[in-house]
Structure formats: structure tokens, C-alpha cells
Amino acid sequence: MQNISLEELAGKAKVSKTTASLVLNGKGDRYKINKDTQQRILRVAAEYNYRPNFSARSLTKGRTMTIGLVVPNIADSFYSNIAFQLEQQLANTEYQLLMGSTRENSEREEALINTFLNRQVDALIVATTQKKQAYIERIYNSGIPVVLFDRHYPNSLLPHVIVDNYRGINKLIYHLQSKSRTNIGYIGLELQLDAIKERQLAYNDWMKATSSPDFFRTVHYENYQAECEGVVSQLLQNGVDALLFETHYLALEGIKCMTSKGFHCPDDVNVVSFGDHQAFSVFTPGITVVHQPVARIAENCLKLVFEQLKEGGLQSSGEIILEPKLVIRNT
Q1: What pTM was estimated for this model as a whole?
Q2: Which residues neighbour 142 within 8 Å (Cβ) at sequence distance 6 or greater?
Q3: Is the four-CA dihedral 278, 280, 286, 291 of positive or negative sign?
Q4: Are residues 181 and 283 in the same domain?
Q5: Is there a single domain that holds both residue 254 and residue 273?
């Protein structure tokens, strides 16, 4: 059946174009439109296969009502939860979320952003590879709203939402010390990302301040699953009584290795993770983590986006640093 226009739909439903538009955009209750009228409009829309003309809407509003989300890996539970929260928080607006993954490849990051710009997204929310600062700054300076999250450029004015990574690692260390753990091994990533550097700096500062043994180890992101087993085995042989993992996916690999070698957590070796995973709350024992507040990260990303979209631009410094939360379970 041929698609009909909004004007034709309104005529068949015997309402104004404005009333039909409000109902079709889910705003009927907000504007106190009669329930029977709402049902009549929706029935006509379904009967005549009504589809909104997004091109016309874009011309009218000067916007496409889309936001591009760029993340390293949408399959990663942290980034998929961010995407979910953004979609939830955009549900009562006219905005739609477009998303894609860079796989930590800077050229793919640029290509993906270019694709979004060619689709004329109204804003970009990016967990950057931190290798495209000049490129992203040019986009921002051209007037397109940009918000970075999870990773940022410390010497840039680009708006960003991050957690206090240094403090998060300190919380995990202090927790382990409260459990009388002193030989704390650290397993992190060989990645030139500011968030990773802050986490590693926190551990190394603690190690120097306490003259603790050097149990700091890193693995390559591209091969972390294979390499993680080797460094965990080495640290276990060296007599660590706790393992602090820099990310949740490193912790998952480390626990798998410990279990295969007959080590019990927390009796033999305690385990904590920067970053939560749904499995950590159902494991026996439950894994203590530093939780990144994904709902608040998403909320503040959108806050900075909509500030930039308004006339007058940002109403704040553009920097939001959130406190990570220690979630104590059984380790």
C-alpha cells in the first residue's frame, strides 16, 4: 500500500496536522490528547502504512535528529551498556542513536566518523582511540557538537565525561590491604590511552610508596587472551596473594586461568577488577569491583551534547569527572 503524507493522515483521522504529529511522536499523553483520538490516529497510521518523511523533517528543523556513537567494541559489556543507556535516555526525545565500533583502529575511527558526518548527524559521542586529536578538534571547531567519554585528550578543550581512574585503582588497593593482602599483582594493557595510563600510574605510585615487590605486568590488547594466561601463571608462581585486573575482560581471563591451575579465590589469591561484568555478581565467590556509573556517564554525555545544540553553546567547562564506586562482594 502506498505511503500517505502526514496531512492526508490527519484528514482521514479528522484532526489537525499538529495533533497527528504529537500522537505519532509519542507525546499524546503529555499534551493531554484524548485517548480515543490517539487510538484513531494510530489506527489510520497503521491502516495506511504511514511512514514519517525524515528528509522533510530535517529540512524543516535544520537537523537530522540523529547522534553518532563511536566506541572501540560494541560487544564489550561496558560500551554496550553505555549504548543502551543512551538509547533509554533518548527514548522520550525525537533523537535516534547511530553507532559503530573502531576496534581500537584510528583509521577506522576516522572513516566511521566521516560516515556519520556524511549522514549529517547532529552530534558525536566518541570513545576515541586517542590518535585523532587534530581531526576531532577540527570537527568540534566547525560547530558540530562533540563529546568524548571514557578516554579524552588531557591538553584539549574537547568536552568530555570520564571517571577518576587513579582514584578507582586506589580504592581497589586499599580494599585488598584491608584484607591483609600485601603482594598485589597488577595485570594491565599495553595501550597508549590516558585512562589506562592513569590506572597504571596509581598502582606504580602505590608500589613505590610502599616499597612493594614489582608485580606489575601488561599484555597486548590484540592478543590479551593468550598473553593473560602467561602473566597470571607467572605471578601465581611468584607468590602473589592478590590480583588486580585493569579491565573486566582481563579479570575474566585471569579467573579462568586461576581455576584451571587449581587456585581458589579468595582463599589462595584474592581477585578484584576495575570495571564490572554481570558474571562477577553471580560468580562464587562474587568479585569485588570498581563500578563505572554507566547511567550517569550517558546522562552527562547527553547533557553536554544538548548544551552545545542550544543557542549559546556550553554552559559549563565541558569537563565532567565522575567518582567510581567500589562494589564489595566476596573477594
Answers
A1: 0.80
A2: none
A3: negative
A4: yes
A5: yes
